[in-house]
Design a protein that fits this description.
This protein has helices spanning 16-25, 46-49, 85-94, 112-119, 126-129, 137-145, 155-169, 199-202, 217-228, 261-272, 321-335, and strands at 6-11, 31-37, 61-62, 74-77, 99-102, 132-134, 149-151, 173-184, 207-208, 235-240, 247-255, 278-280, 298-304, 310-317. It is of the alpha/beta class. It has two domains: 6-130, NAD(P)-binding Rossmann-like Domain (Rossmann fold, 3-Layer(aba) Sandwich); 156-319, Dihydrodipicolinate Reductase, domain 2. The strands form two sheets. A seven-stranded parallel sheet has the order 3-2-1-4-5-7-6, covered by helices on one side. The chain has a seven-stranded mixed sheet with strand order 9-10-8-11-14-13-12. Strand 13 (298-304) and strand 14 form a beta hairpin. Helix 1 (16-25) packs across helix 11. The two termini are 37 Å apart. The mean pLDDT is 94.
C-alpha cells in the first residue's frame, strides 16, 4: 500500500484532537481528507471553525448521518467518550472494508464492568470491543498491523506506559508502589466551554483535578497488570498546567532486587533504541515539554532518587500529537503497511 492514497474521514473534526488529525493529514502523502464531521458546525467550511486550517481545499463539515462512509478507507474518531460506540458498530457493520481508529476512551477498557464503573454508563458495543486492539504502537505493533478497530490510548496513559512498561515487564520495579505526578496543557480538557479552562481560571496557576478518580487510571492499571502479571494499582494525580499543549509525567518507583536507575535506563534503551518516536535522553538531561511541542516524539529519562532503593522516571510528549492524533496516524501507517514515520516527521516547535 506504499503508493496508495487513502480516503480519510474524521469524526469530531471541530475538537482539538480531530483538528490536529486534520492538520497532520494535510501534509501526509497518502492521506486525502474526504469527510469531516462536526454536528454543531455542520454546513460550515473548516476555516470558519479553525482559520489556520482554511484555504486548503478541505471538504465542508457535515453531520455524521449525512456522511457517505462507503467512500472512506479509514475513519479517525475524535468524539467524546460515550458517543463513539454505536457509530463504530454502524460504520463497521455497513462497510466492512473501513478501518476505524478511535481516539476516544470507548474501546480502551476490555472489562465492561470497569468501563461502566468509571464512565457511568454501560458499554453498548461489546461485540465491537472484542476486536478492538489497544493502539500503543511501540508495544502492540503486530496486533495493530492486523486490526480493523484500534483504540488509541489516552494522552496520560501513553506518556505513563511508555515510561513504565519496559521496566514493569522486566520485573525491575515494584508494582505495588508507583506514584505518578502528571501535568497537561489545557487542550487536554477538550474544546467545550468549562469554567476551569477559562483563561482567568487556568492562567498563571497550576491546578490538580480528578484526584483519586481520573478515568485514565484504570487504563494505566489494565496495561501494567497485563505486562507485569501482577495486579497493579497506581497513585495518579493529574494537574492542569497554563499552556495550550504538552504533557509531562514524573513517576516515583520502588526498585526491585538491588536495581539502580542505570538498570532501568538499560531496559529503556533495549526497548526503544530502534523506535523512531521514543527516545531515552543521555546523561542527566531532564525531559521538558519544550522539547516535544508539536511533534510525535516522546522523551524519557530516569534518575536515582535520594531515597534509597527508589528511582524517578520522567516522560514527556505533546498530548495532541503523540498523545492522540499523531499516535492515531502512526497506527494508521502500521495498519496500511506504510512507513511508520510517514507524515509525522515534524520536529518540535521552539520557542
Amino acid at each position: 500500500m506504499v503508493d496508495a492514497i487513502l480516503k480519510v474521514g474524521v469524526l469530531g473534526a471541530s475538537g482539538y484532537t480531530g483538528a490536529d488529525a486534520v492538520r497532520l493529514a494535510m501534509t501526509h502523502p497518502n492521506m486525502e481528507l474526504a469527510a469531516l464531521t462536526a454536528n454543531t458546525h455542520a454546513g460550515k467550511p473548516m476555516s470558519a471553525v479553525y482559520p489556520h486550517l482554511g484555504y486548503s481545499g478541505l471538504p465542508d463539515l457535515t453531520t455524521v448521518e449525512d456522511t457517505d462512509w462507503s467512500q472512506v478507507d479509514v475513519v479517525f474518531c475524535g468524539l467524546p467518550h460515550g458517543t463513539t460506540q454505536d457509530i463504530t458498530r454502524d460504520v463497521l457493520k455497513a462497510h466492512p472494508h473501513v478501518k476505524f481508529i478511535d481516539m476516544s476512551a470507548d474501546f480502551r477498557l476490555r472489562d465492561p464492568a470497569v468501563y461502566e464503573e468509571w464512565y457511568g454508563r454501560p458499554h453498548t458495543a461489546m461485540d465491537m470491543q472484542g476486536e478492538a486492539v489497544y493502539g500503543l504502537t511501540e508495544h502492540n505493533r503486530e496486533a495493530v498491523s492486523a486490526a480493523r478497530l484500534v483504540a488509541c490510548p489516552g494522552c496520560y496513559p501513553t506518556a505513563v506506559l511508555l515510561g513504565l512498561l519496559p521496566v514493569a515487564r522486566a520485573g525491575l520495579i515494584s508494582m505495588s508502589d508507583i506514584v505518578i505526578d502528571a501535568k497537561s496543557g489545557v487542550s487536554g480538557a477538550g474544546r467545550s466551554l468549562k469554567e476551569n479552562t477559562l483563561f482567568c481560571e487556568a492562567g498563571e496557576g497550576l491546578s490538580p483535578y480528578g484526584v483519586t478518580k481520573h478515568r485514565h487510571m484504570p487504563e494505566i492499571e489494565q496495561e501494567l497488570t497485563a505486562a507485569s502479571g501482577t495486579e497493579t494499582i497506581v497513585s495518579f494525580t493529574p494537574h492542569l498546567a497554563p499552556m495550550s499543549r504538552g504533557e509531562l509525567v514524573t513517576m516515583y518507583v520502588k526498585l526491585e532486587g538491588g536495581n539502580k536507575a542505570a538498570d532501568l535506563k538499560a531496559a529503556f534503551k533495549k526497548a526503544y533504541d530502534d523506535e523512531p518516536f521514543v527516545h531515552v535522553l543521555d546523561g542527566a538531561v531532564a525531559p521538558s515539554t519544550q522539547m516535544i511541542r508539536g511533534s510525535n516524539h516522546c522523551l524519557i529519562n530516569v534518575f536515582d532518587d535520594r531515597a534509597s532503593g527508589r528511582a524517578i522516571i520522567i516522560s514527556t510528549l505533546d498530548n495532541l500529537v503523540k498523545g492522540s492524533a499523531g499516535q492515531a496516524i502512526q497506527n494508521m501507517n502500521v495498519m496500511f503497511g506504510l512507513d511508520e514515520t510517514t507524515g509525522l516527521q515534524q520536529l518540535a516547535l521552539f520557542p
